[in-house]
Design a protein that fits this description.
single chain, about 375 residues, alpha+beta, 7 helices, globular
């Protein structure tokens, strides 16, 4: 596998010195980066055979740096792995399951190995999206990815498919062939506090009542003065959701609040009769969570080395870590070693299985890592 990487800001030199014809180009673009449309269009015209994908971000990752107002471009040339890109429109939030199944169906082939998904971050129920994928792809096909970001504005996100910047859309990149080795992991590192409460009324991703009480009113009572800054401050206080006693808890992040209904809207489904607890960030625990995610990937790879690593971390983690945000990227580098080209972005949600034999899930507030290598590498 050959790799190339460059970070660019408005007004800087955008000349690319890619010494190969890329198969796949990843673009992670800050919403504050001027007009990205022209750059994406020209890039596609220059490399018409490449699958170009990515999304808007809440921060761009290049190697061990975290930046804003930039484009991070990463190009890959595979030895034998084939690629295909497709997209679907996220017509409504309730259409997410159907959209996921439709996109998976478009990418299905007998030798499909992995699907990378980049989704609109505001109009898609990530939990239902991955259920749609799970209905179509066999357990031998892994699915990872993330929801596009928009800083902390929660106003508008986009995805990228070849020469187009798409709104309200989900893009899937299918990778095919037995030589591709994929490893992945997703860990959080948040601390739970307060008592566990039962979800007594919810519809899809909207939470109305906890223990029979208005959800927003109860949530605000925990936040105190920080409740004045909702929904933005909700990134600092996600919920841990336990559907039943045997399932691993999922983390859910707030996207919006409704004062009239006293409800909370989340990035993924909040199941009726599930149990939730409030969570808060601790810098050391979050960094340890990123390290643990990298260690899981390293264990899955074994003696081999990853050649490419895609890091997707949640915007809420960035808000807690602040100036220390690069430390969670640096610990991933320390664990994975010098070899893999590392790129990624800060997101509104992360998509990955809990473990190797598990189905893909929507996560919030995690560090999710996906690595690629090819078995032909010498």
């Amino acid at each position: 596998m050959k790799t190339y990487q460059k970070s660019m800001k408005s007004g800087e030199d955008h000349t690319l010195q890619i010494a190969f014809e890329p198969d796949v180009i990843f673009l992670f673009i800050s919403p504050g980066y001027g007009d990205a449309t022209v750059f994406v269009s020209e890039l596609s015209a220059r490399y018409p055979d490449a699958s170009i994908t990515g999304c808007s971000t809440s921060g761009e990752i290049m190697n061990t740096q975290v930046d804003d107002n930039s484009i991070v471009l990463s190009a890959l040339k595979f030895e034998t792995t084939k690629h295909r890109i497709s997209s679907v429109i996220a017509e409504t939030y309730d259409n997410s399951h159907k959209a996921g199944a439709s996109l998976a169906d478009q990418l299905m082939k007998d030798d499909l190995k992995h699907i990378l998904v980049f989704s609109d971050g505001l109009r898609v129920n990530g939990a239902e999206l991955v259920k749609g994928f799970s209905d179509v792809v066999p357990s031998s096909v892994s699915v990872t990815g993330g929801l596009a970001g928009d800083g902390t504005d929660f106003s508008s996100t986009y995805t990228i498919k070849n020469g187009e910047i798409l709104t309200n859309s989900i893009v899937g990149l299918g990778l095919y062939g037995s030589d591709l080795k994929v490893a992945y992991s997703s860990k959080a590192g948040w601390d739970s506090f307060g008592i566990e409460r039962k979800v007594t009324r919810s519809v899809s991703n909207v939470l109305y009542e906890l223990d029979g009480k208005p959800a927003l009113e109860l949530y605000k009572s925990y936040l105190g003065k920080q409740a004045e800054d909702l929904p933005g401050s909700g990134l600092l206080f996600p919920l841990s959701m336990r559907v039943n006693e045997t399932d691993a808890p999922l983390v859910r992040t707030i996207l919006a609040v409704n004062e009239e209904e006293q409800s909370l809207t989340f990035a993924g489904s909040i199941h009726q009769d599930s149990y939730v607890r409030l969570m808060k960030g601790n810098m050391d625990r979050l960094i340890n969570g990123a390290e643990g995610s990298a260690e899981n990937v390293k264990a899955s790879i074994g003696e081999d080395e990853a050649e490419f690593a895609l890091l997707i971390s949640c915007v809420g983690r960035r808000l807690v870590l602040k100036q220390q945000v690069e430390e969670e990227v640096e610990v991933v580098r320390e664990v994975l070693g010098d070899c893999p080209l590392m790129t990624g972005f800060y997101s509104y949600g992360e998509l990955a299985p809990f473990g190797k034999s598990d189905l893909c899930q929507l996560h919030n507030q995690t560090m999710t890592i996906t690595t690629f290598s090819e078995s032909l590498r010498k």
